[in-house]
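Page 37, continued from 36.
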């Protein structure tokens, strides 16, 4: 048993960098897919609504751990052997798109109907109406919930360790096995997660209070 060296602490910091990178990529890709899903959920086509409703139910109703198993081990069974980074990025992107799709659908529906009616009266096309009137307001409404989901996504990246991806939790496990000081190592890991998540939580809470004040 020995104390944690600068090299081992640097290894934990590198794991934290991969955690941030994976979370940011999942949020960015999931945001694009989530917007498509949100718009499809509000489509006049019953088929699109059913398909996207089933997609959301699937990813919200199954554990994230199982979803990562499928994107890594399941795809390998049909000949698609992916790099651990790519497989977990795909898994988290699909997971994020389902939740963000519902968050943004609710935000779009929360935009006052008078805004859409005014845009229609001005003769704006659907694309311009969504781009210039509805989506900017919906984005503002959705920010607190989106930030809250991002915090959960950061903590959820610890599940990527099951496929050998060396994010923060996996890096902590490796250092713990080398130093035989699990309490100290996981205390540092926990402090790193807290440092990443707490400021985001505070920011989300402040935005929520501002929106509530503006709505009065």
């Amino acid at each position: 048993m020995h104390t944690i060296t600068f090299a081992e602490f640097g290894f934990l910091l590198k794991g934290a960098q991969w955690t941030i990178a994976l979370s940011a990529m999942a949020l960015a890709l999931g945001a694009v897919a989530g917007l498509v899903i949100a718009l499809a959920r509000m489509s006049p086509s019953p088929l699109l609504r059913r398909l996207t409703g089933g997609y959301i139910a699937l990813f919200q109703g199954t554990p994230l751990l199982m979803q990562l198993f499928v994107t890594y081990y399941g795809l390998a069974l049909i000949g698609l052997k992916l790099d651990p980074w790519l497989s977990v990025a795909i898994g988290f992107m699909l997971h994020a798109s389902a939740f963000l799709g519902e968050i943004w659908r609710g935000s779009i529906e929360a935009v006052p109907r008078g805004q859409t009616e005014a845009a229609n009266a001005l003769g704006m096309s659907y694309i311009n109406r969504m781009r210039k009137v509805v989506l900017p307001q919906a984005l503002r409404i959705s920010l607190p919930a989106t930030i809250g989901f991002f915090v959960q996504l950061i903590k959820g990246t610890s599940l990527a360790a099951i496929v050998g991806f060396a994010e923060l939790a996996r890096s902590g496990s490796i250092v713990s096995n080398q130093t035989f000081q699990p309490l100290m190592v996981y205390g540092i890991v926990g402090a790193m997660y807290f440092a990443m998540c707490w400021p985001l939580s505070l920011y989300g809470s402040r935005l929520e209070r501002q929106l509530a004040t503006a709505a009065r």
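The longest helix spans residues 6-41. Flag for discussion at group meeting. The chain has a mean pLDDT of 87.
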